[in-house]
Amino acid sequence: MKNIVTIMLCLFSLILISCDKDEQEPEKFTVVDFSATNFPQEWKLVASRAAMIPNAKVTKVEGKAESYIFNEDFTFQKKSKIEDETIIAEGTYSIDEREFIILEYLEESDLIASCNRKSKLEYLHFSDSQLINDSWIVCDGPYLYYKLVE
């Protein structure tokens, strides 16, 4: 009986010791890193996720060439290739205290992710080394995920 208790204590101790190690968290890319990174930066659309469906899966986006290009002088371009035509919208960006990147377009465009066709603003934020555009979620649109092109 003593042997069984000793073996159980040893196994329990081994489990506690092995579960004690913290997993190293992946390095997160924040708006501070964005401001300090080399420019120009290109962020390409890589995935999307439905906003109004609980636990919706992130779906890889392939073949759709959409990207943001950010310049050091706080200007940007949003490019989208549809069939053989490339559409470009331009504007300026700023970074607010909540770590959002606010894009202000020079003119109205179909490329602007907004529920209001007249809006010239988009809001982007960082999460897990990705730039996320969630401007459409209030009108049942998708989350759009962009990755930095190295």
From TrEMBL:
PROSITE patterns: PROKAR_LIPOPROTEIN. This is Lipocalin-like domain-containing protein. It comes from Zunongwangia profunda (strain DSM 18752 / CCTCC AB 206139 / SM-A87) (Wangia profunda).
